[in-house]
Amino acid sequence: MDPSSEIIKTGYTKYTNLTYIVMTNKILVVVDMQNDFLTGSLANESAVKVIPNIKREIESGKYTHIIFTRDTHTEKYLETQEGKRLPETHCIAGSWGWNVCDELLNANFGIIEPMFLNKPTFGYKDWVDYFDQNYLIGDESEFTFTGTCTDICVVSNALAVKAAFPEAQVKCIADCCAPLFGDPQKQESALTVMNSCQVDVIRPTKK
Predict the structure, then answer these.
(1) What pTM was computed for the model?
(2) Which pLDDT does position 6 carry in this prediction?
(3) 24-202 maps to which CATH number?
(4) Number of CB atoms found within 10 A of residue 125's CB
(5) CA 48 to CA 46: how far, in whole Å?
(6) Which whole-number Å values give the CA distances from 170 to 3, 9, 42, 64, 92, in the listed order?
(7) Per-residue DSSP letter, 134
């Protein structure tokens, strides 16, 4: 292996003249933009409306990595605590409703190979392990969150990442997120909580 040119961990480190160089990962996290949350069993017009904004971010060229999370349940969903409180079967693994919407999967990713993360509940609890498995360093990364639902899965994962990697910069783009059932009060409440926990909320520039 030639240490002067070999990429050691894709997207963030390399050796140059035997010096270990760390480059910031810029990671776009697209939370649960799956068919069931858009036009399926938990259809949400406000989530459909942010698809073009998320696609804009995917195609912006600003990111080194793009991670799609997928809410992932089994046929026994209604027997779970979540299922009893939200009794609407959705995102059954392998089903049409579980898939990320075509509009985003068909976006122009450039040279980036999108990554997928399946999670059985609102917040993914193994971010550190996931990053180790994919040769990434969380505390030397910049995370930008988008997706649905702002007040459930987006806020849960943004705070989970902030807890896992306290030195990472974590952001949330307001106009790339949508609350459950389009409730604007829940949207604002979630954004306020994230801001209080040092997640930078990026809002559209007023014209």
Answers:
(1) 0.87
(2) 31
(3) 3.40.50.850
(4) 15
(5) 5
(6) 32, 21, 28, 15, 29
(7) T
The strand pairing partners of 20, in sequence order, are 15
Contact 67, 30 (CB under 8 A): yes
The proportion of the chain whose per-residue pLDDT surpasses 90, expressed as a percent, equals 78
Average pLDDT over every residue of 4-13: 34
pLDDT, one tens digit per residue, over 12-51 is 344 344 344 446 799 999 999 999 999 999 999 999 999 9
Residue type (1 letter), 147: G
Which has the closest alpha carbon to 58: 28, 85, 35?
A: 28
Q: What is the mean pLDDT of residues 88-109?
A: 97
Q: Encode 26-62: b = buried (16+ Cβ within 10 Å), e = exposed.
A: bbbbbbbbbbbbbebebebebbbebbebbbebbeeee
Residue-wise burial string across 63-87, b where 16 or more C-beta atoms lie within 10 A, e elsewhere? bbbbbbbbbbbeeebeeeeeeeeee
Every domain of the chain and the residues it spans: 24-202
Distance CA 197, CA 74 (A): 32
